[in-house]
Amino acid sequence: MADMTVKTNRGTSTTLDASLAQTLAKSMRGELLTPESSGFDAARAIWNAMIDRRPALIARCAGADDVVACVRFARQHDLLVAVRGGGHNIAGNAVCDGGLMIDLSRMKAVQVDAAKQTVRVEGGATLGDLDQATQEHGLATPTGINSTTGVAGLTLGGGFGWLSRKYGLSIDNLLSASVVTAAGEKLTVSERENPDLFWALRGGGGNFGVVTSFEFRAHPIGKEVLSGLIVHPLSQARDVLRFYRDFVAKAPDELAVWFVLRKAPPLPFLPEQWHGKEILALAACWCGDQAAGERALQPLRSFGDKIADVIQPHPYVAWQSDLDPLLTPGQRNYWKSHEFLNIPDGLIDVLLNAAAKLPDPQTELAFAQLGGAISRVPADATAYSHREANFLINVHGRWSDSASDARCTAWARDLFKACGPFSTGAVYVNFLTADEEDRVKMAYGPSYDRLAKLKKKYDPTNFFRLNQNIRPAS
Questions:
Q1: Integer angstrom CA distances of residue 10 from 56, 433, 466
Q2: With CB atoms 3.0 to 4.6 Å apart as the test, which of 155, 310, 359, 458 could cross-link to 411 if both were Cys?
Q3: pTM (global) more than 0.70
Q4: How far apart are CA 359 and CA 374, in angstroms?
């Protein structure tokens, strides 16, 4: 292997002796890839195809000791570092140009303690890995809505999905974590051990170390949830959304109802004449007694002239992967996001105007319902501080052809700007794109100054800086 040009953590370039990389390879149980290695291009590819970066080295770690070896090697040689869990982050922080990519994707073990109702998950596991293991015991931990998302990145930013109104964010169910710090030390963090770092990890993103495993609380939800879609034509969306906002304002914590505005995909339960037409889809999930869920959902299911209603009991694992076909890797993605306290008529007008001008059949407006248990956690209990939001929009630009980049990103930015007057000003850190550095402080909100002080304590040189970055306090 020839000597290689590498990027330093200061943004400059230098040359790394090939023999040094071989030394790292020999210290690992996992595999070290170079650009000449078979599988290198597959290993550097991440979910968002707009991100195309080439690390100098990819370390496919087999355990925490491999991560320690990588961190110490990168520190010794001043290498730029990226950390890959599931590779789903929209900003592409899982991969870097010219540096060392610490790849956890082979660290996928999940261990469930059914008696204690806890689960330990390695840092490369996906939501699907977690759900499959916990559901064997009728348990679940609140996570996201796409089974191929990585547990690590989702959790470090907060983590919300169908169960969060009942059981809180992913971080609200985090009991402990194992972390490799910027000093190359392994720490256990919890309410009792290193509690300041435990606080920071719960919403502070990847700023404070590489989390090699998470221990979560799991909840007995059974193996089925009452869930599915109610689909309306876009022409009825204004009336439906006005009804929706009143309906969800009174919804119990067991119920989460999101909505999506998009062109109808060719789903088997939709009449063919609706394929490719603009629709409003309400996505509902009830985690609780199903008879009570049927009663709770009845008004929503009775309203309007529907195209389809496919709400019924579904295996939780199946429901968690139901949206996977619409979120496959390899497409070009650009997101913009806002949080809201309510849904005034003016915001509905903005959403419907944008939905009538979708720039690509894959593009959508996804609107999540929050509140419930999320909002009852004190704002300063975790680094995720903006608990007051009841709704969140992900303006999800998605398309295949790079020739559509300008048109699709402009549509997303225009909609984002139009939604601004109705928003809280906060933003979910996991939804920030690479061009939104100006919104990082808004993402961390009142927690930012405390996080900056902890960054100085645990990572004073900003070694972990490929993230929605918190600079060490001066």
A1: 16, 22, 12
A2: 359
A3: yes
A4: 34
